[in-house]
Amino acid sequence: MGAGPAGSYAALRLAMLDVKTDVYEEHAEVGLPSHCAGHISIRSLKALGYYPLPKGIIENIFNAANFYSPSGTKFSIRLKTPVTCALNRAKFDQHIANQAQQAGATFHLGHTVQSLQIENNYVKGINIKNHPTVSSKIVIDAEGISSRLLHQTGLRGIDGKGLVYAVETEIDQVHDVEPHAVEVYLGSSAPGFYSWLIPRPDGSAKLGLATNHGNPQTYLKHLMTKHPIVKNQVKGAKIVKTSYHAIPLAGPINRAYVNGFLAVGDVVSQVKPTTGGGVIFGLTCGEIAASVAKSALKLGDFSAKSLSVYHKRCNETLNFDISFMLHLRRFLNSLSDERWDSVLRFCNRFGVAKALCDVEEIDYQGQMLMQLATKPAMLVALGYFGLLYLFANP
Length: 394
Ligand SMILES: Cc1cc2nc3c(=O)[nH]c(=O)nc-3n(C[C@H](O)[C@H](O)[C@H](O)COP(=O)(O)OP(=O)(O)OC[C@H]3O[C@@H](n4cnc5c(N)ncnc54)[C@H](O)[C@@H]3O)c2cc1C
Known about the structure:
Elements: H1 5-16, E1 22-25, E2 39-41, H2 42-47, E3 58-62, E4 64-68, E5 74-78, E6 84-87, H3 89-103, E7 106-109, E8 113-119, E9 122-128, E10 134-135, E11 139-141, H4 148-152, E12 163-171, E13 181-185, E14 195-199, E15 205-211, H5 216-226, H6 230-233, E16 239-248, E17 257-258, E18 261-263, H7 279-299, H8 304-334, H9 337-349, H10 352-355, H11 365-372, H12 376-392
Bound molecules: flavin-adenine dinucleotide.
Residues 1-7, 24-27, 35-40, 112-113, 142-144, 146, 149, 166, 168, 208, 245, 247, 265-266, 271, 276-280, 282 line the site of flavin-adenine dinucleotide.
């Protein structure tokens, strides 16, 4: 249940495997309301068969990123080819849902799942507001961050301490911004995370931030009026849309299955701890969930033991990179504003941008670093960051 990217993609893969699949979504339209920046790696989209995409879904492509300290020190990366793109998330979600329907899945929009039907310790179906109970062999929970239904199974769910609270806006105009560069503002402008600006070709942009420390709206106001770079970039701009949502950064929860039940996506924190990106990991685990569910149906065994393969396969795919990213997030959170200045100056001085210029992978960041570690500038940088990390986490 849940027609976000994780749920709809699991449904698509199940339908492709000839499994009768029903998706229950509380909203009347897939993808709305949208709360996401939609900044995604092109390489990962390609691997999942989602690049290129039909017209109107991809809003922009990026081959550069500019990072700023709170005092305005800038570090820029220029890549040889476009590595990321910005998606219109509502249209992207609708595209996956349409594909799933064409493959045979049935979508029930405006259907809020109120609770799980549990008998003899097995999840046997779902109870829907104002509708009869639906029985099923396996329920795949893709309810997003709310975790309300997951808790009913006895699984622990997301730890509130690992959440950051985000505000995402659309603004009508930006200035002094490169058309194909993402802007990232570090340090105390958004403690515990960062702020971002993602431009569109028509001069509008998505501007947002997330923090684990206070009200994101207050930080946004401060960012737009006081940040030495942002205040000029957004001068005279109007906010035309605002949304609020939490992002889980603590890495996947330690168990995502019980008898007759699998959980996928944000509900089990399948999200990158560094950037908060959850779309690619949600799709990747949605595909694994579908294949494990199909095998369980073949065997007629829906026990937790049989479904535990799901957790094992997700761990094999994500764990190395997630562990690395958890350390990296801890390191980034430990840097003071003054330290951010010196880190970005260090990166400029030691040619880190040049060492990064042929990066293509941004989702599996542990593996990416292993490849980069052979370059002298990166070795020096890793040594420097390693010392800072040890200093901050003795
Ligand atoms: C501000 C912000 C910016 C982000 N930017 C990026 C980014 O640039 N790149 C990236 O990769 N990720 C980004 N993310 C994360 C990304 O949005 C999520 O990881 C992704 O949407 C998770 O997909 P999902 O399918 O698990 O959950 P969701 O997209 O949240 O979908 C869950 C669906 O379940 C439905 N639902 C919930 N409860 C019920 C119920 N009881 N009954 C029926 N339906 C229900 C909801 O209506 C919703 O449609 C961002 C998140 C935020 C908050």
